[in-house]
Amino acid sequence: MTSAAVNRTVRELLELTAGYLDQKGVTSARLNAERLLADVLGLTRLELFCQHDRPVLAVEVARYRELVRRRAGGEPLQQILGETEFYGRPFKMEPGVFIPRPETERLVETCLKLLEPLRRGDRTPVAVEIGCGSGAIGVSLACELPRLQVHASDVNPAAVALMLRNARALGAGPRVHAIEGSRFDPLAASLRGQVDLLVSNPPYVRSADIAGLSVEVRDHDPVAALDGGPDGLKFYRAIASAMRDWLRPGGHVAVEIGDDQGVDVAAILAASGGLEVVVTQDYAGRDRVVTARVGEAEAADG
Ligand code: GLN
């Protein structure tokens, strides 16, 4: 109580912190300062604005300092807060699990369009996700399509556990099945030829480009979720060569790509029998999603 007189207000603390984070090279420094302080005080950002003159207690300042120090050191905000919003829902985040990017919402949107005809069909639609991470894509799809069954794999056991946790928290637990393992390896053989949608945001950064990524990405996203091999296309080749084994006739594949990979990924899918190959842009106008369909006859032959 004796320190009350020297306590800084919310406004003062935000000014100082925004300046500090900016100087440390953090983009959107003010927003970061606000989000972290709101978290420490247990407020929303809106509530924070309404309490600009509130004095911040010494214990709160100490806790805030620690979070600001982590952010200044390059730890992503989503990881510090332990949560991020994706496709309108809160997803728990954990160190060591890939943080979903806003542009990936475009992939979800594209998948929902592809699955729309199955919404009122007489059978249960099935999606497979390769490399599920926190489950942002697969769980969002399950939440949006109340009958969809999602089978997902990830090499990272922490990702598998996190996806299941997010699925439960968002009410899709019973329809989301995540298994540890590489690509298609852990999937039940009974899914072969039964899948309506094969979706993935695979690692697509060229190995040599990883060192040049921002600290937030390079030092905090798992490298296994980023590294797409020497040309960044390794996982697209794997997905393309397996897609006809898993998709049912007429089923769709939808993948996120790096903005300079549209032509290559379209060619890879087409070479493996993908039909109606389409490249879609994100909201920044960059190539971001490639989709294709497997043919009725081709898949039946396979
Ligand atoms: N979009 C990620 C990045 O920040 C890459 C994600 C991926 O490889 N799938 O570069």
In short:
By secondary structure, the protein is α/β, with parallel strands linked by helices. The protein contains twelve helices and nine strands.
Number of domains: 2
* CATH class division of the largest domain: Alpha Beta
* Strand ordering within the main sheet: 5-4-3-6-7-9-8
Can you tell me the CATH architecture of the largest domain? 3-Layer(aba) Sandwich
| Secondary structure tally: strands | 9
Q: Quick one: overall form?
A: elongated
Keywords for this entry:
single chain, about 300 residues, Rossmann fold, elongated, binds glutamine
Structural description of this entry:
Mean pLDDT is about 95; it is low at about 300. Helix content is about 40%, strand content about 20%. The chain is built from 12 helices and 9 strands. It is elongated and about 75 Å long. It folds into 2 domains: about 5-75; about 95-295, Vaccinia Virus protein VP39 (Rossmann fold, 3-Layer(aba) Sandwich). The strands form 2 sheets. It has a 7-stranded mixed sheet, sandwiched between helices. It has a two-stranded antiparallel sheet with strand order 1-2. It is an alpha/beta fold and about 300 residues long. The structure holds glutamine. Glutamine (GLN) binds next to loops.
Topology:
Layout (H helix, E strand, L loop, with lengths): L9 H14 L5 H13 L3 H6 L7 H15 L4 H5 L1 E4 L2 E4 L12 H11 L10 E5 L5 H9 L4 E6 L2 H13 L6 E5 L14 E6 L14 H6 L13 H13 E10 L5 H10 L2 E8 L5 E8 L1 H6 L1
Parallel strand pairs: 3-4, 3-6, 4-5, 6-7
Antiparallel strand pairs: 1-2, 7-9, 8-9
The structure holds glutamine.
